[in-house]
Amino acid sequence: MSDSGSATIDTQETFIRQRHAKYFAMCLKVLPRSMATLDTQRMTLVYFAVSGLDLLNSLALIESRRAAIIDWVYAMQVLPDKDNPGLNAQACGFRPGSSVGAPYNPKCEAQACLKHDSGHLAMSFTALSVLAVLGDDFSRVNRQAIVQSMRALQSDSGEFFATADKNESDVRFLYCACVVSHLIKDWSGVNKATAVAYIKSRQTYDGSFAAAPGLEGHAGYTFLCVASLYLMDQLDEVYTKVEQDRIIRWCIMRQQTGFTGRPGKLVDSCYSFWVGGTLKILGAYDLVDRTCLRGFLLSTQSTTTGGLAKSPDTLAGVGEPDVLPLDAAINMSERASQHAASLKF
Question: Start and end of every Prenyltransferase alpha-alpha toroid domain (predicted)?
C-alpha cells in the first residue's frame, strides 16, 4: 500500500517516508499556534526540517525555495560593526531569528550593529548545517568573525557560553563549537586542551557523561562529549580501547525496545539518535538490535500528518533503505557532510 494512500497503514511494518517528507516541508511553511513561543529558535526549526528532508532524500520538495532559504540564513548572520568591528566582536555568528529587528541583509553587507543583537553558538551550528545541507559554498560566511567570537565565548575551564552575555554554558555549546570549527575548517577558536579537560571532568563512574561533575550520566551528554572528542581528533588520545568499551557497554545497556536516556527511565525515540550516534562514532553500532529498534521507531509514526514522536531523523541510524546514511558526529547526512568537506577556503 502506498504511504500516501489508505489510512489503514500498518505503522509497525511500513516506513511512511513520503508522509514524513511532506510533514517537514509543511513545517517550513506554517506551524501551529502552540509553537509561537519557539519563534526565538526559528533557525533550529529550519535546521530540523531541512535536515530531515535531506535524510529522507526529499530536498526536491523545497528546490524552488532553496535560494530563498539560503538567503534567509545569511540574513541572520551577525556581522562586525561597519565602523568599529571590535564593538560587537564577541557577539558575531548567527542569530536565531528576526525578532531583534535587524535589517534583512542576505548579501551580508557591513552595517552598524544593533544593541542586544547577538549571535548564538547553537544557532551558528544549525545555520551552517542548513547551508551545508542545501549545497551552499559558505562564500558569505564571515569565518574570521565567528572564530573571534568563539574565542571570547570559551572560559579558562574549557566550557563554552552560548552568547556574549555569558548567562548559559554546558557541554551542548562545546559540541556546537566543535561542529562549527569542523564545518568552517578553522579550529583556532577552540582551546582543545582545556576543552578536553572539561569533558573528562563530566565522566561518571559507569563510563557515561553528565551535565556537571557529580551528576547522573545521561545519553545526550554522553553523545555530546564523545562526538566533541571525536571531532577534535582526541577520542583515541584521551581514552584507551578498554575505556571506550566502558562507554559502549553503558550505551548498549540503554536498549530495551528503543533506548532510554538513563537507567530506570522509559524508552524515548530521541535517544535512538543520542545513543545510536554515540555507538556509531565508537564503531559499535553493530551491537544494536536493529529489528527491535526499528519496530519501536515505526510505532512512533503519525499516520495523520507524518513525523515521528519527539525526533525528526532517528531512522537514519537504523539502516532504513529510504533514508540517507548519517554522519553521526555532526548530525547531518553523509552527502551533506561530504559537500562541506569539499569546500575550499
Answer: 16-314
